[in-house]
Amino acid sequence: IKNIEGLEFPDAVRFLARQYNMEVPETGENPRHRQERKRVLAALKDAARFFYAQLHGPAGTQALRYFQQRRLSRRTMGNFGLGYAPDSFHALLDAMTAQGYTKEELAAAGLIARSQNGTYYDKFRNRVMFPIIDVRGDVIGFGGRVMDDSKPKYLNSPETMVFNKRRNLFAMNLAKKTRSEYFLLAEGYMDVIALHQAGFDSAVASLGTALTDEQARLLTRYTKTVIVCYDADTAGQTASQRAIDILKKAGLRVKILRIPGAKDPDEFIKAKGAEAFRKLIERSDNDIRYRIESARDKYDFTEDDQRILFLREAAGIIAALENPVERDVYTASTAKLAGVTQAAFQQEVKNAQTRLQYQQKQQYHRQVRAPAQAAQPKERTIHYDNMRSARAEEGLLALLFSDASLLPDMREKVRP
After folding, report:
1. What 3-state class would DSSP assign to 238?
2. Which residue of 193, 228, 364, 413 has the fewest CB atoms within a 10 Å radius of its CB?
3. Which of 65-79, 190-204, 285-299, 360-374 has the lowest mean pLDDT?
């Protein structure tokens, strides 16, 4: 189960226990906290059922039409548990309290909020709802897209005892079962759902925030390769650059998918189809080629000074590569791209390496000096030249202040 479901050992035990109606003896956790957590998870699961029922009831006509206009099948809506939060301040509150949940439990689950005058109200109103399900299969939160012009357009559950948006990915509960050799990292819920419906069942998305280190580490449990397919706009490109660094730091192989003629995967698949998108995946750039091409797009090569600026930026990208063979390959291809000799650009890369090594050395020295700088007195007129001696003196003085009876004996010992 650990391998199949991608779970840590305790979660694998709980997974099996649920299947066979067995109680897991919990240790090291406050029983009251454990019970609160259990009730919160139960409330979130029942809320998901409520939203799903509303989508397919009289109140959800407009919401259902929205999903149908996005070309989602009934099966896809069911697989993702999509729902609708009615345009009411207390529809969910009334339904959940009727099932025996207290207002405090619903607030702890992030389903309701309390106003300044002390009354409780539904947090999600007139929104299509996307349940957020963790790798254990538990509903831990929701994302809601507004059905009118209200702000914000998307609203996520707040942080709770079961929901930490930095540590979870949307659709990971489904993507973890994929047989694909790579995972697709998209920006939004609808992109992920459209990708799954088109047959790309390894698609996931971060939860309304930029990709985090914790999410990257979660991905390493299921794959070695991630293809980033963020939106084609400037914000998407910026997010892609940031995601590259985070994913590579986690030890993942990174490729970037460019989406021509569409703003996102959902729009491209609707216009060109799944097979065309699969071909895009096959032609996706590795992260270095993507960064060089992105730099190329910023400059006008008909202007000499623009070409020089591009070559300097590209040299900085290549200089950061540790493998000398990779450096040579990208040096040659980039020189050809910019129309300069390989030898000339190679020198530019070497200069960039020298600058990078100097910056790394300076950063290292700053890190080494940081503890010593922090230990210096805040009074700027005092400076410790010998830190070890000074800290020993501080310790001695602290001892004397804590026990004045030591002072006479100390005077004897330090008398010249």
Report:
1. helix
2. 413
3. 360-374
Distance CA 172, CA 260 (A): 27
Q: Return d(Cα 60, Cα 213) in angstroms, integer.
A: 38
Distance separating alpha carbons of residues 46 and 139, to the nearest angstrom = 9
Crossing angle for the helix pair 287-297 and 234-249, nearest 10 degrees?
150
Pairwise CA distance, residues 13 & 346, whole Å: 56
Provide the strand spans (E) within 229-321.
253-256, 285-286
With H, G, I as helix, E, B as strand and everything else as coil, classify residue 363: helix
Sheet-wide strand order for 83-85: 83-85, 127-133, 139-146, 154-156
Of 27-36, 57-66, 291-300, 383-392, the range with the lowest mean pLDDT is 27-36
Cα Rg, the chain, nearest whole Å:
29
| DSSP secondary structure string for all residues of 71-115 | T--HHHHHHHT-EEE-S-SSHHHHHHHHTT--HHHHHHTTSEEE-
Q: Retrieve residue 383's tokens.
A: 């400076």
Instruction: Respond yes or no on whether the N-terminal peptide bond of residue 152 is cis (omega within 30° of 0).
Output: yes
Question: Cβ distance 124 to 144 under 8 Å?
Answer: yes
d(Cα 92, Cα 75) in Å, to the nearest integer? Answer: 25
- Write down the residue that tokens 């930029």 correspond to: 210
Report residue 116 as tokens.
């300044």
In degrees and rounded to multiples of 5, residue 185 shows phi and psi of -110, 110
Read off the pLDDT of each residue in 251-276 and give the average, rounded to a whole number. Answer: 92
Please tell me the total number of residues recorded for the chain in this structure: 416
* Tokens found for residue 398: 């602290």
User: Which segment, 71-85, 278-292, 353-367, is predicted with the most confidence on average?
Assistant: 71-85
- The tokens of 170 are what? 């949307």
Furthest-apart CA atoms within the chain: distance in Å = 95
CA distance 115 to 340: 65
Does the model's pTM come out above 0.85?
no
Per-residue b or e along 262-279, where b marks 16 or more CB atoms closer than 10 Å to that residue's CB: bebbbbbbeebeeeebee
- Give 362: exposed, middle or buried? Use CB within 10 Å, 0-12, 13-18, 19+: exposed
Strand partners, 121: 113
The residue behind tokens 């020089």 is 308
Q: Label residues 373-397 b or e (16+ Cβ within 10 Å = b).
A: eeeeeeeeeeeeeeeeebeeeeeee
Q: Which residues pair with 156 in a beta bridge?
A: 143
| Structure tokens, 286 | 């590795």
